[in-house]
Amino acid sequence: MVDAGEDAKFIARRMVIFASEDIGMADPHALALANSVFQAVNTIGMPEAQINLAHGTSTWLKAPKSKHAYEAYFEVLDDVKKTGNFLSRFQIRNAPRNL
For the chain, what is the mean pLDDT? Predict the structure, then answer.
């Protein structure tokens, strides 16, 4: 992608999304690394940042994958659309106050 002229910031942005969508909870540190790669691309720029892109890519190629968080989010979103947005039960609200 870099050799074909794709914007490095676009690649880094997609890496952040990939870290959450496809690696997710199988490696919770993937998102932190993705944000570090994104920051490096924005701070350093090309051509040096291609090493940072390669670092992230090679790490995620070997990483375990899990879409549990991604799928759970959209399942809950669908449920809210079907059943409505209900208030949480009083016992689990965390703001103590006099009602």
Answer: 89
| Chain segment 65-94, per-residue pLDDT in tens | 999 988 998 998 998 888 877 777 777 777
Distance CA 15, CA 28 (A): 14
- Residue 35 and residue 77: Cα distance in Å, rounded? 26
d(CA 38, CA 9): 7
**CA distances from residue 27 to 11, 22, 65, 76 in whole angstroms, order as listed:** 20, 10, 8, 22
State the Cα–Cα distance between residues 99 and 31, nearest whole angstrom.
40
Would you give the DSSP letter of residue 27?
Answer: S
Length of the chain: 99
User: In terms of Cα–Cα distance, which of 54, 61, 75 is closest to 23?
Assistant: 61
